Amino acid sequence: MSTPAAEHAPGHASADGIAARAHGLTKAYGSGETSVIALDSVDVEIARGRFTAVMGPSGSGKSTLMHCLAGLDTVSAGQVWLGDTEITGLKERDLTRLRRDRIGFMFQSFNLIPTLNAAENITLPMDIAGKKPDEKWLDQVIDTLGLRDRLKHRPAQLSGGQQQRVACARALASRPELIFADEPTGNLDSRAGLEVLGFLREAVDELGQTVVMVTHDPGAAAHSDLVLFLGDGRIVDEMERPTAEAVLERMRLFTGGSPQTPGSDVIRGHHEESPPSGAAPADAPSLDKD
């Protein structure tokens, strides 16, 4: 099942408005009789300028799909593109450069450097790459996220919600083509989580970003434009203009009438899939172990 496309987009995005796509994407862990198929011949398109949520029962392949689309994990078979660039088969050095220049990341753990203040954490990836930020864009991101009066604070001086806002600003700062968010509200209380989801929604609506978010929470998925449902490593359904109630009802079909409801241990961010092989890339914040 493929997802709908968006309009034409400039830059590196493909001419048909697709920010990322995969064809026949398969990911297996192990070999022989112990092999586990995490993704099974997945075809998917991520439309540029939209907010896409990825949901499914534990072990369905959600985080594995995100890791493969972002070039954080290798694929066993199939092809993956970021815009018009095929990333399957790229050398690690080229993948590192691509992730650094064209993708933003948000994870459940904020991964802020404790000795740096908020402003320094936000620009750290660009500082490492030797690139100067677009000051006008950076100011817009900081103001959108309400961080203007927190820029001199170190992480220990910020609440969990404020730290995740800093992480969000870091993901947005380089104006990436695509932002991948893996359970970004998993370590936040409900109020702070709603704030972060609102900021991601605003990043799409007001700043023209493209966001892909893995989540267990129907309420979080309701902030998206499109929900993709995974089951046994395949995309089994999708939902446009989702509501929390509709997503929860759809999830009941996949969990035998016992949906994973908000507040459960699963929703609070205990990830299910196997982690990417090897260590986290130096250009991306450290990954939660799935």
* Total beta strand runs: 10
Order of neighbouring strands in the sheet with most strands: 6-7-8-3-9-10
**Secondary structure tally, helices:** 8
- Strand content bin: 15-25%
At CATH level 3, the topology is Rossmann fold
Low-confidence stretches: 1-13, 259-290
Largest sheet geometry: 6 strands, mixed
Identify the CATH homologous superfamily. Answer: P-loop containing nucleotide triphosphate hydrolases
Descriptive report:
By secondary structure, the protein is an alpha/beta fold. It has one domain (18-254): P-loop containing nucleotide triphosphate hydrolases (Rossmann fold, 3-Layer(aba) Sandwich). 30% of the residues lie in helices and 22% in strands. It is built from eight helices and ten strands. It has helices at 62-69, 92-102, 118-129, 135-144, 160-173, 190-205, 218-221, 244-254; strands at residues 18-29, 36-47, 51-55, 77-82, 85-86, 103-107, 178-182, 211-214, 226-231, 234-240. The strands form two sheets. Strands 6-7-8-3-9-10 form a six-stranded mixed beta sheet, sandwiched between helices. Strands 2-1-4-5 form a four-stranded antiparallel beta sheet, covered by helices on one side. Helix 3 runs parallel beside helix 5. It is globular. Mean pLDDT is 84; it is low at 1-13 and 259-290.
Structural topology:
Blueprint: E1 18-29, E2 36-47, E3 51-55, H1 62-69, E4 77-82, E5 85-86, H2 92-102, E6 103-107, H3 118-129, H4 135-144, H5 160-173, E7 178-182, H6 190-205, E8 211-214, H7 218-221, E9 226-231, E10 234-240, H8 244-254
Parallel strand pairs: 3-8, 3-9, 6-7, 7-8
Antiparallel strand pairs: 1-2, 1-4, 4-5, 9-10
Helix pairs in contact: 3-5, 5-6
